[in-house]
Amino acid sequence: MRHLGNTLKHGALAMTLIASAVHAMAADGAAGAAKGDPDARARATVAAMTLDEKIQTVFGYFSTDFKGTAKPKEGVPFTAGFIPGVERLGIPHQQLTDAGTGVASQPNPSPRQRTALPAGIATAASWNPALSYAGGAMIGKEARLSGHNVMLAGGINLLREPRNGRNFEYAGEDPLLSGVIGGEQIRGIQSNHVVATVKHFAYNDQETGRFKVNVKIGDAAGRMSDLLAFQIAIERGNPGSVMCAYNLVNGAYACENDYLLNKVLKRDWGYKGYVMSDWGAVHSTIPAALSGLDQQSGWPFDQSPYFNGALKEAVENGHVPQARLDDMVQRILRALYANGAMEHPVRVEPEKIDFAASALVSQQVAEEGIVLLKNRDGLLPLSDTHRTIAIIGGHADVGVLSGGGSSQVYPIGGSPVPNEGPKVFPGPIVYLPSSPMQALAKRLKAKIVYHDGKDAAAAARLAASSDLALVFATQWTAESIDQPDLSLPNGQDAVIAAVAAANKRTVVVLETGSPVTMPWLDDVGAVVQAWYPGSRGGEAIARVLAGEVDASGRLPATFPRSVDQLPRPALDGAGLPEGTRFATDYDIEGAAVGYKWFDKKGHKPLFAFGHGLSYTSFKYTGLAAAAKDGAIDVSFSVTNTGKRAGKAVPQVYVSKTGAGWEAPKRLGGWDKLALQAGESRTSRVAIDPRTLAVFDSASGKWKIAAGEYTVILAEAADAPVTTVKVRLPAREFAAGGR
Ligand code: BGC
C-alpha cells in the first residue's frame, strides 16, 4: 500500500494542500505523544483507585435528557456520552462524541454546527488511505476543539446487505478495503489525542431488528470477512476502544459474547484497549463483565445500570473477580494515556476551528469519492457547448443530502431544506448548504434552470427544451431503518425515465447511502454516484461534472441488478413485531460477501465492485509478482494514455483454485496514482497475506496452501487487465498475525 508521502510526492495541487494539513496535524500528534509506557502508567493509577472510583470509570451516561433522566450536570451537553473523571488522580472526564463524518449533535435544543465529511462509503470509494487519514485528522481536531476526547468513529461493518440503512457510515463490502480505510481514519482521529472507537463489533450489518437479530456465522467465515475488517483496522489504527454491537452473534449478545470479546479480540488479536457497549446493548452485569465488556455506555439507554451498583455488588461478593474490574479500568486508562488524553486536556474552543481548512479536506475527500458509473460518448465532463441546462430534483438548487441517525452532523448555517422526514430520531432529514447548481453556475456559461422534480411531466418538458438535463436523485438512509428494496424512493425512477425520454443528454447524479437499481440506465447518457458528499458536496460534484478534477472514485460495493441476486432476497426480520427475536443466517454466503458472492454464483451485477470510469485512460504493463516473506509482492507500470491528468486505481486480486476459498478471487491490494497526461509510473503492491490464506478454526491459525496463485491486475472486479502466476510455499501463522 502506498503511504501518504509517496502518494503526495506525485500528486497535484489538491494533494499538496492535503499534505500540509496532514503534516501539521501529524507533527502536532508526534510532539505531544504521551510520555512513558501507558500500561505501566495505567497500572499505577488503577492501584491507587478506590472501588467507587473504578465503578465510576466503567459506567457511562448519555449526555442528553432521555427517558425522564436528566443529562449529567458536567460535560459537553447534548452529545453522545460522558464518564466523570477522577480529579485527585488526574483522570480526565471522558467526553464522547459521534461519529465518522464529524462532530455529531443531538438535534435539540440547538444543534452544534460542524464540518461534515462525505459519508464513510464515499471515503471508501476514494480508495485513498491518505485521504481517509486526512478526514479523520480533520474531524478529530473538530472533536477536540468541541471539548471531546473520545470519538465514536471508525464504522466498518461490512456491506453484506445493500438495504442496510447504515451502509453510508461504513466502508463497503471488502474486508481489506474497509479495514485499511477504517484504520487510517482512526489514526487520523487519534493524531489529535482523541481516542477513536471502531464499531460495531460485530456483524451489525442490518438495522431491521438490530436489538434482537441473532446472526449465525461460522468462525472461519467470520474471520475471513467481517472480523478481518476489524482486525486490519485495529492493527493499522490502534483504536483506544471497540464498540460492541446491539445484535446477538451465534446466540449471545455481542456485548456479552465471550467468543467475540475475550477469545477473538483480546486473546487472539492481543487487543489492549477497552470494549464499550453500544447505547442500549447491555443486558446483564455478571455475564457481560465476564465475557469481556469493559464499559457500559449511555445510561439510561439500557434497562438497568448494570455496571453501576450491581457491578460493585458483584465484585464485592466475588461473582466478578476484582481482577476483572481492574482489567476494565486498566484498559480504559491505558487508552487515555496512550493517546495523550491526560497531557492534552480538552476544552470547548469552537472559535479555534478553522472551518475553511476543514471544508477543504471534506471537499477533497468528496472529489475523490465520486464515482463516474457511465459516460456515453464522453457526455461528461460538461462543456460550454450546452447553452441551456435543466437541473432537476434533489434540492440541488440549495444543497446536498446527508445520512440520518446518531452520526448526523449539523451543518454550519443550518439545513436549507427544513421539515423533511421524521420529526424524531433518526430524523430530521438534513441537507448541507452546498448547492451543486450554484457551483455549476459559477463554472459554466450555460443558462441553468431548476425544477424540483416533483412533477415528472413538467420536468420532462423542461428537459425537452434544454440542451442537457441533470437529474439529482436522492435516497435518504438512516440508522435504525433499512431500505425496503434497492429502488430510489418517491417515484424518482419515473421522473428520470420521463426526463431521459425527453432528452437523450440526461445525466443522473445519485446522492444515496447504498447501492440502488437503475431501471432507466440504458436511456441516460451518464451516471455519477456522489453518495452523501459532505459540507462542500456541491462544489465537489460541480468540479467533477465540469472536469476540473478527474472522476477517480471506484465502487467499494457491488451494485446488484435486483434483490434476487443477494444471498437473502428478503430481509430477515422485516415485518416482525418490534422486540421479536429472530435469526439471520450469514453462513449462506459466509465469507463470500459482495463481489465474492457474485463471482461464486456467476451473477452479473449492474456495476461491479471496483468499477468507476475516469476522464482519461490508463495502460498497464509489466505485471510481475514474486513470493516475498510468505506473501506476494506485485509490481506493474501504469501509463496515462489520455490527454488529461487523471487518477488510476489499479486493483490486484488473487485467486487459487482447489484451496477451499469462499470465492474465486479476493482483493489482495491496490494503489491509487495521480498521473499527468502521458506520464508513467511503477506501482508496487504488497498483498496482504490473509487474503492468500484460509482460517483454520481447528488449529486457530491462518494457513496459506503451497502451490500456484494467480495474480489478477484489474480495473474492477469484473474488469481484469492481465494476470501472472506465482508459486508460494505452505505457511501458517497465528490468528492475530500476518
Ligand atoms: C449507535 C452508535 C452510536 C451511539 C451513540 C447508537 O445508537 O448505534 O453508533 O455511537 O448510538 O450515539
What features would you highlight for this structure?
single chain; 738 residues; alpha/beta; TIM Barrel; Rossmann fold; six-stranded mixed β-sheet; 27% helix; 22% strand; binds beta-D-glucopyranose; Glyco_hydro_3_N_sf; EC 3.2.1.21; Beta-glucosidase; glycosidase
Layout of helices and strands, plus pairs?
Layout: H1 4-9, H2 13-31, H3 38-47, H4 51-57, E1 59-63, E2 79-83, E3 94-98, H5 120-126, H6 129-145, E4 150-152, H7 175-190, E5 195-201, E6 213-216, H8 219-223, H9 226-237, E7 241-244, E8 248-249, E9 252-253, H10 258-268, E10 274-277, H11 286-291, E11 296-299, H12 309-316, H13 322-338, H14 355-369, E12 371-375, E13 388-392, E14 400-401, E15 431-432, H15 436-443, E16 447-451, H16 456-464, E17 468-475, H17 492-502, E18 506-512, E19 526-529, H18 537-545, E20 582-585, H19 595-601, E21 618-628, E22 631-640, E23 646-648, E24 651-655, E25 666-670, E26 673-675, E27 680-686, E28 694-696, E29 701-704, E30 707-716, E31 719-728, E32 731-734
Parallel strand pairs: 1-11, 3-4, 4-5, 5-7, 6-8, 6-20, 7-10, 13-16, 13-17, 17-18, 18-19
Antiparallel strand pairs: 1-2, 2-3, 8-9, 12-19, 14-15, 21-22, 22-27, 23-26, 24-25, 24-30, 28-29, 29-32, 30-31
The structure holds beta-D-glucopyranose (BGC).
Q: Which strands sit side by side, in order, in the main sheet?
A: 10-7-5-4-3-2-1-11
Helix residue percentage: 25-40%
The CATH topology annotation of the largest domain reads as TIM Barrel
CATH superfamily of the largest domain: Glycoside hydrolase, family 3, N-terminal domain
Strand content: 15-25%
The CATH architecture classification of the largest domain is: Alpha-Beta Barrel
From the spread of the alpha carbons, the general shape counts as globular
| Ligand identities | beta-D-glucopyranose
**Spatial separation of the terminal alpha carbons:** 15 Å
By DSSP, the count of extended strands is 32
- Overall structural class, as computed from helix and strand content, comes to alpha/beta
Total domain modules:
3
The overall average pLDDT, rounded, is 94
Oligomeric status: single chain
Q: Tell me the radius of gyration.
A: 25 Å
Number of DSSP helical runs: 19
Major sheet characteristics: 8 strands, mixed
The CATH class label of the largest domain is Alpha Beta
